[in-house]
């Protein structure tokens, strides 16, 4: 059952609904009463992507159609999921990072229109390999998007991910990591900045199957207007996955009375001698800090923007690739100017 | 001559509870006045009402700075007019380096006054000089403002901000609290270095100790929300000897 299945079969019963525990805050069946027609091919140019210039190759998937098939294996590559028009489409892609290789994957979701789309990615990170994935999701307010990544790590693999999204009509960014332990590490970070009636759901599931694995997660959200942020973070430590070191943080700022954040951090621990911690906070900007900045001469709006940007910067600063970090910073600053 | 700061019959409340009750005070340019008083007299409330903190409702009276109605301005507008508060408990600002914070504040004030922005090299020169005088390690200024700083470091950072922003009127709220004797001396020297004919200071303190280092021109006793006695520096010593008991019975 998935949005992709529903698009392929045309069967609305395949849509996840609020009756599914994992989807109760991101109900698609209640939202989509009729599926739009399948998207046609994109006509004309699509312009530059946010990471152009940082990467070669630049791979594009246009309305679900892979434009070219340059293999992405190592180095710095960009992957653009582009949607145009108001149809439905789905696509799937597999990327393997070979033994000892290093790949920086700069992914962008670039929509225009009110499409319904699901994009799935299978990521395989071999022994001793490193993958840093930066995902910039900039979709229109009317779009529905599901992004799902299934990541399999080998021992001593390093995986680091930063998702940045401004949401959409309904949107789910899901990452599932099969973590073998064995010195492998995963960092799963997220930023969601929501205004108006935008919705974003960041869901992660990390399953530690072997001993000696590290997972570090930090997600921060800023929600204004009637926006709604969802964070679901599950860490499973299976029997035998001893010496697992897992930490998860989720912190959200609400900028308006009608903004909403739903958070569900879950730690399921079936092993001994593990270090697992999670922290979750949802609140408003610190009024005392705000007054302090104003007393120094910084006008209220600028003080709010400064403190909010600093709140999000903690996540953005963890991006290792310098060029991508600069793109992310600029995107956050521009977005926060619109978020009230 | 009009005093720099003129407070007339000021009353203010928090959550419907009257804290300031007909407070009057004139502070001429070039002078340092101390405000002393028992706990709960309204000392910190006075500093917050003057700087415009939310939640403090002015129910009567007036405050003017150079003849201009201060109470009609927002907190940042008051700052740009030259009003500075050294906080009793300076706030931590996670994610904003002290240098960035101060430069943003200084340029915001310049902009509000229609002055040119200060360029980065000139700003760095200014802040290096002021930091050295206060024995603040420049590297500390690259860290998030006040995050993980000791009580003494936070108070020195307040004085550094005052030195960089060069206010017309500085309110020092319990600046000596939490300082050991060496830190107190450094802070007091920093404050004394800023005494100037066109600058006034209001030093709020519970104890006389700070006033050995920052010599006030006048001392006022604040009790039950208003000034109940005023005098020269000797009044501070009298209070130190005799306590505030004799003012406790003053009706509010």
Which helices and strands occur, and which strands form pairs?
The complex is a heterodimer of chains A (340) and B (252).
Chain A (H helix, E strand, L loop, with lengths): L2 H7 L48 E5 L2 E2 L8 E10 L3 E10 L4 E11 L3 E10 L4 E9 L5 E10 L4 E8 L4 E10 L5 E10 L4 E10 L5 E10 L4 E10 L7 E10 L5 E10 L5 E9 L3 H9 L4 H17 L5 H17 L2
Parallel strand pairs in A: 1-3, 3-5, 4-6, 5-7, 6-8, 7-9, 8-10, 9-11, 10-12, 11-13, 12-14, 13-15, 14-16, 15-17
Antiparallel strand pairs in A: 1-2
Helix pairs in contact in A: 2-3, 3-4
Chain B lengths: L4 E10 L2 E11 L4 E5 L6 H9 L5 E9 L2 E2 L5 H6 L2 E4 L11 H15 L7 H14 L17 H15 L3 E5 L7 H12 L7 E6 L3 H5 L4 E6 L2 E6 L2 H9 L2 H4 L4
Parallel strand pairs in B: 3-8, 3-9, 6-7, 7-8
Antiparallel strand pairs in B: 1-2, 1-4, 4-5, 9-10
Structural class of chain A, by secondary structure, is mainly beta
Taking pLDDT < 50 over at least 5 consecutive residues as the criterion, the unreliable ranges of chain B are none
Number of domains of chain A: 1
In DSSP terms (H or I, runs of 4 or more residues), the helix count of chain B works out at: 9
Strand residue content of chain A? over 45%
What is the makeup of the main sheet of chain A? Answer: 10 strands, mixed
What general outline of chain A do the C-alpha atoms trace? globular
Structural shape of chain B: globular
Describe the largest sheet of chain B. 6 strands, mixed
How large a portion of the residues of chain B is in β-strands, by DSSP E?
25-35%
**Average pLDDT rating of chain A:** 95
Helix content of chain A: 10-25%
| H/I helix tally of chain A | 4
Assembly type of the shown chains? heterodimer
Total E-strand runs of chain A: 17
Strand order of the largest sheet of chain B: 6-7-8-3-9-10
Arithmetic mean of pLDDT of chain B: 93
Helical content band of chain B:
25-40%
Q: How are the strands of the biggest sheet of chain A laid out side by side?
A: 2-1-3-5-7-9-11-13-15-17
